[in-house]
């Protein structure tokens, strides 16, 4: 299976939101990383077929998605940033409703709902009204609805918003388990969401795909440019002028500073291995 984005451009009035996006994807997890407002959601809406690009095409195995119509949409699972729910529906009723929209039979829906309720850890909460759900529970329900039709292309826009740390780990494990047989596009500005599971990381800024590669490829680009130093607080401003500060930790004797810099930032700095967070800050330090 191959999903290709060919010369995708999207304008909103006179403003260009996406500028000539070209991308080829096969089964696996693709982490779409970038600050808020860089066009990630617009791109995902185009792939999910809920928004038409100004120019360009989306191809699945060589076929234009517009020509495929329902055949393409049947292969999509989509979790938007804001998922509308009927507050007076129970979670179970909501999933039955979505399953009907996706064309599942009642038996198919029933079987999938039971499995997915367990998968997203909502088995004991399925008869509770959606309006009574917490933000994290609504997000887990949203993940379940995206998986109802067992999609071959799963599109997740900020899927871990509202999840507590244990739920985030459970989510990452789930995505990793199911990604061998499907394309998963996961948009986030939280580096840890993709750090351990992404086949490829896509760095997106100002409507453009800035860089694409494996985590190893991206971190290797900063080899020899990431440092840590134990310094007095008065030197922090100097370090910030000469590099990109990734992290500052307060200690009893001063600050431990992690910084990306092409040159030695302070005399006692030691070189350390780059991380994906270092890469993110290197590209997006100006937002």
TrEMBL record:
The lineage is: Bacteria, Bacillati, Bacillota, Bacilli, Bacillales
Question: Does the record bear ATP-binding in its keywords?
Answer: yes
Q: Which residues cross the membrane?
A: none
Q: Which PANTHER family does this chain map to?
A: ABC TRANSPORTER, ATP-BINDING PROTEIN
Organism from which the protein derives: Paenibacillus odorifer
User: GO molecular function terms here?
Assistant: ATP binding; ATP hydrolysis activity
User: What Pfam families does UniProt report for this protein, alphabetically?
Assistant: ABC_tran
Which PROSITE patterns does the entry link to? ABC_TRANSPORTER_1, ABC_TRANSPORTER_2
User: Does the entry feature the keyword Nucleus, yes or no?
Assistant: no
State the family it belongs to.
Answer: Belongs to the ABC transporter superfamily.
UniProt KW keywords: ATP-binding, Nucleotide-binding, Transport
- Name it: ABC transporter ATP-binding protein
ABC transporter domain boundaries:
3-231
């Amino acid at each position: 299976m191959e999903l290709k984005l060919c010369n995708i451009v999207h304008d909103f009035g006179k403003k260009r939101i996406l500028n000539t996006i070209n991308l080829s994807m096969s089964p696996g997890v693709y982490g779409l990383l970038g600050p808020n407002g860089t066009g990630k959601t617009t791109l995902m809406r185009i792939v999910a077929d809920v928004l038409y690009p100004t120019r360009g095409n989306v191809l699945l195995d060589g076929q234009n998605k517009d020509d495929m119509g329902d055949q393409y949409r049947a292969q999509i699972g989509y979790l938007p940033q804001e998922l509308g729910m009927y507050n007076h529906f129970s979670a179970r009723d909501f999933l039955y409703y979505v399953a009907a929209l996706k064309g599942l039979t009642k038996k198919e829906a029933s079987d999938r709902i039971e499995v997915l309720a367990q998968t997203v850890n909502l088995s004991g909460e399925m008869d509770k009204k959606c309006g009574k759900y917490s933000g994290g529970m609504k997000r887990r329900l949203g993940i379940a609805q995206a998986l109802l039709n067992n999609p071959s292309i799963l599109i997740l826009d900020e899927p871990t918003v509202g999840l507590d740390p244990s739920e985030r780990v459970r989510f990452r494990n789930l995505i990793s388990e199911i990604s061998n047989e499907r394309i998963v596009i996961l948009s986030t500005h939280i580096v840890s969401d993709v750090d351990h599971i992404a086949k490829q990381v896509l760095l997106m800024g100002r409507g453009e795909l800035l860089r694409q590669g494996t985590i190893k490829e991206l971190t290797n680009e900063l080899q020899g440019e990431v440092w840590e130093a134990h310094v007095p607080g008065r030197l922090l401003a100097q370090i910030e002028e000469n590099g990109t500060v990734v992290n500052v930790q307060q200690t009893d004797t001063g600050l431990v500073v992690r910084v990306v810099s092409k040159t030695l930032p302070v005399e006692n700095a030691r070189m350390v291995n780059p991380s994906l967070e270092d890469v993110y800050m290197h590209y997006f330090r100006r937002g």
